[in-house]
Amino acid sequence: MNMYLIGLTGGMGSGKSTVADCLRSNGIPVIDADVIAHKIMNEENTLDKIHEIFGKNVFDKDGSLNKVKFSSVLFTNTVKRKKLNEFVHPKVWTEMMNETEKYVTKGSKVIFLDVPLLIESGWHTRVNETWLVKADYNERIARLRLRTNLSTEEIKNRIEIQMPESEKEEYADKIINNDGTIEETEKQVIEELQKIIEKTEKR
């Protein structure tokens, strides 16, 4: 496929969604791994795998997945989380590539993959370049407190199980700083996007 594939990543509360929205508003396709993963998580074979790994305690009596119980185990048990990721991640990647092919068929040359665990999963090696969105630690917590029902302690625990931003920076080709206003972030995105468009036009 003749395309320029960019991985977009960042920790919880970093503002990755803000960057993705800016890209979309400028006509750039962004494929969201979380949306795909959510769909896959509701498939019967995935639910069977969850039952196998996590047991019946994360399911309600009617057989439906209890998301509160499931999340409490998922974010505290590294071994079980790794086993589930090994099952789900290949399915997510396959579906992202299917969507990518559709955009290429429509004439898109630059496509972004919005993937929270891009680097942790090793998928940064499968894209042409990696963009990292970063923000101040306390600002990230404040944002997540506003938009989720999680406590500060729960947010900190979830941030801490992710790869530290300082380590992610080592893999990033571009860093978008999201500590300022939305306008300041969008300015960075548009400037970097223009460079990419110019680069792909020369290919």
Chain-wise SSE layout:
Elements lengths: L3 E7 L5 H10 L4 E3 H9 L2 H11 L12 H8 L3 H28 L4 E5 L14 E6 L2 H11 L4 H9 L4 H4 L5 E4 L4 H20 L2
Parallel strand pairs: 1-3, 1-4, 2-3, 4-5
Structural summary, described in words:
Its main location: cytoplasm. Its EC number is 2.7.1.24. One of its GO terms (cellular component) is cytoplasm. It is an enzyme of class 2 (transferase). With 203 residues, this protein is of the alpha/beta class. It has two domains: 1-29 and 110-197, 3-Layer(aba) Sandwich (Rossmann fold), CATH 3.40.50.300; 37-107, P-loop containing nucleotide triphosphate hydrolases (Rossmann fold), CATH 3.40.50.300. Helix content is 54%, strand content 12%. It is built from nine helices and five strands, in the order E-H-E-H-H-H-H-E-E-H-H-H-E-H. It has helices at 16-25, 33-41, 44-54, 67-74, 78-105, 137-147, 152-160, 165-168, 182-201; strands spanning 4-10, 30-32, 110-114, 129-134, 174-177. The chain has a five-stranded parallel β-sheet with strand order 2-3-1-4-5, with helices on both faces. Helix 3 packs antiparallel against helix 5 (78-105). The chain is globular, with a radius of gyration of 18 Å. The protein starts with a strand and ends with a helix.
